[in-house]
Each structure stands twice: as C-alpha cells, then as structure tokens.
Specification:
The chain is of the alpha/beta class. Helix content is about 25%, strand content about 30%. Bound molecules: flavin-adenine dinucleotide (FAD). The site of flavin-adenine dinucleotide (FAD) has 34 residues, from α1 and α6.
C-alpha cells in the first residue's frame, strides 16, 4: 500500500480523465491519473480527429493523444500506467487497486469510457485477437491482401468498412437490416467500391477457427452460407466500462453512470465524466467538458465551497 493520499484520483486517461487531471492539478491539488495505455483514450486508435475546435486541418488520434499526455505531465499530474482492478467507494477515503497496489483519494473521478459490445456468438471470445477485431484502425494492416467481413450494426461501421476496403482484398459487409440509416454520401461511397459485397438481412451464426480464424458461418434470410474470411471486424455498438465498480453507484438501464450537471454521482465525492456516464453526446469535446466540470466539483468539495 502506498502511504500517499491524493486529493483526486482519476480513473482513465481519455479526454475526460486527462482534462479532469489538468484542471485538478491547476487548481493546486495532488492528482493521480490511472491509465493502462497511453493518455488519449478511444480517439488514439482513430485515423483522424477533424471536428475538435482549434485544429482546422484536423490531426490524427495518435497525435492528439500524445499532445494530451504532454499537457497532463506538464502540470505535474502523477501518471500511473496500471490496470485498475478494483474500486471501493464506501467510506471517506476512496480506494483503488491497480497493478496490485492500493491508491487512496479524497475524491474520485471515474472516466473509464466505453468498450465495444460483443456479438456473443460461438467462437468470438476464443478468436479475439486471432482474426476477431473491434478496431479497423488498429488491426486492418494485419489483413492486407486478405478477405475480411465487417459486421455493420452501427453507422460508424460504414466508415471503417471503407477504410478496410482500401487495404484488404475483399470486404463482406454483414447487416441485419435491409438498408443503412446513415449519411447518404457514406453509403454511396461504400456501395460503389468494387471489392465490397453487401450481405443484407444477414447475421453471423458462428466464427470458426483454431489458432486463427478459418471461416464464418452466416445466416442470410434463413439460409446458411460460409464466408472464407481471415478476419471479422465487429461494430455492434458500445457499452460502459464499469465492471470495476461492481454496482456501487447508480446507473441507468444500460449501465451508464447517472450524474447531475455537476458530474456528481449517487456517492458523495465520487464524480463521473465522459462516455461512461449517461449523456446525450459521446465525443471528445463533451468528454473534455465533463472532465473540467468534474474536477471543478471535486475542487469545491475539497475546499469546502458550497
Ligand atoms: C471509431 C471511433 C471514432 C470516433 N471518432 C470521433 C471523432 O471523430 N470526434 C470525436 O469527437 N469523437 C470521436 N469518437 C468518440 C470519442 O473517442 C469518445 O467520445 C471519447 O474518447 C470519450 O472520452 P472518455 O475520456 O470519456 O473515454 P475514453 O476515450 O474511452 O477513455 C477511457 C480511458 O480509460 C482507460 N481505462 C478503462 N478501463 C481501465 C482500467 N480498468 N484500467 C486502466 N485504464 C482503464 C482506457 O484505457 C481509456 O484510455 C470516436 C470513437 C470511436 C470508437
């Protein structure tokens, strides 16, 4: 156990957690940021960030993450690159176990974001990282010159399928619907690509393979079909990353943390910010704004300002 007690312990170094840390440190607090990867969060693995104000030319997600990490360290936030394993919210001190060590905070800001929702079909878990992926920007290059499938249950999948089509030999796009709901131009672009085949009203029945993915069994309008692909990219939506909390605070029916406008949760001195909370928009800018508000609320609690 570490002897130190921090004013703010921030869980997750995406835009929400990084911003909360910067604000907390600039308000004169001792801040610990726990993040298992580089600072930047989900956006780090996306190709371009074009809609964040102040960057008219856009920048890569990776570049954005590097800048954010530089800024966090500039303000002397203590960054511990650890996997958070357990959180205890009861009592005055909030306790977090990460990388086998216990950290204590007077206030806690939860900014652990979301994770991809699994399809929940046979073979998916076993072949994760061996052909099953949830991120084209991260893994597309492994499939150069090969055939892959994209499960398109979200509009974001269209952009990813277009990216993949530029790298791999052939893309089968599997959609349980009969048409897409998303932007017309994106759809037209995808459907015009010569190496893209659409499988409408289709679902994945089974993912087959041993050490690597061998093929997919797909059900299309009642008939079964085998797709000879080496990779499958699944876009089936996202879910809040809250397992570590073990039901210790109030969440909505989809598991997103409930907060008020001050980012206060149902537990005193515990705040939530960014994609992990119930919010109408999940973007970098809203996550950063939440982080700033959460740190300001934690500052009020720490200084006894009502
Ligand atoms: C494909 C894609 C494209 C996107 N494009 C855009 C875009 O163009 N513009 C835009 O504004 N937004 C975009 N977004 C949304 C944006 O990435 C998110 O809204 C934003 O990153 C949310 O920030 P956050 O800090 O709340 O969570 P996240 O960015 O998800 O960060 C959470 C952090 O917590 C860490 N963490 C979680 N659990 C643990 C643990 N147990 N131990 C240690 N660390 C942990 C994670 O490693 C992660 O770094 C995109 C998202 C995706 C998936």
């Amino acid at each position: 156990m570490t002897g130190k007690i921090y004013d703010m312990v921030v869980l997750g170094g995406g835009p929400a957690g990084a911003t909360a840390s910067i604000y907390g440190a600039r308000m004169g607090h001792r801040v610990l940021l726990l993040e298992k990867m580089m600072v930047g969060g989900e956006i780090v693995s996306t190709e371009r960030l074009d809609n964040y104000p102040g960057f008219p030319e856009g920048l890569s997600g990776f570049e954005f993450g590097q800048l954010l990490e530089k800024q966090v360290l500039k303000f002397e936030v203590e960054l511990a690159r650890e996997v958070i394993e357990q959180v205890s919210l009861s009592g005055e001190e909030k306790k977090v176990v990460a990388g086998g060590k216990e950290y204590r905070g007077r206030t806690l800001i939860i900014a652990t974001g979301t994770i991809p929702r699994m399809l929940d079909v046979e073979g998916e878990q076993k072949l994760k990282g061996k052909g099953v992926s949830y991120c084209a920007a991260c893994d597309a290059h492994f499939f150069r010159g090969k055939q892959v499938a994209v499960v398109a249950e979200t509009d974001a999948a269209l952009r990813e399928a277009i990216t993949l089509a530029g790298i791999v030999e052939r893309v089968y796009v599997i959609s349980r619907r009969g048409s897409f709901r998303s932007a017309e131009t994106l759809q037209q672009k995808l459907l015009s690509l010569p190496n893209v085949e659409m499988l409408w009203k289709a679902t994945v029945g089974r993912i087959e393979g041993g050490e690597k993915l061998d093929y997919l069994q797909v059900i299309q309008e009642g008939s079964s079909r085998t797709l000879p692909v080496e990779g499958i990219f699944i876009y089936s939506g996202r879910q809040p990353n809250t397992d570590i909390l073990q039901g210790s605070l109030a969440v909505d029916d989809r598991g997103y943390i409930l907060t008020n406008e001050q980012m206060e949760t149902s537990v005193p001195k515990v705040y939530a910010a960014g994609d992990v909370r119930q919010t109408p928009l999940r973007q970098v800018i809203t996550a950063a704004a939440d982080g700033a508000i959460a740190a300001t609320s934690a500052n009020r609690a720490l200084r006894g300002i009502s």
